[in-house]
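Researcher: Please translate sequence to structure tokens.
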Amino acid sequence: MTLLTLTTPLLANGNHWHHFWLWPLIPLAWLFVIFLAFRFWGPRYWRGRHERPTDSALRILAERYARDEITLDEYRTRVAALTG
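Model: Translation complete:
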């Protein structure tokens, strides 16, 4: 049996046509669910995927150098140690 032969009696029956106007809402509901998934979980996932573990350490070193907490020689030595 094919899907068409299984659904034809259902479509021919008058009881299944009352809410035919709702069919456009189903794809819209799925689009809304996908939008919510990307809105709330997407940025966290992608932000963490592009940042290497040493990026935050390099950023902290740059901030410390900008505040004059470490000298230029210390900064260069530590950056060289982090980047290998």
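Researcher: Any highlights?
Model: Residues 52-84 form one domain.
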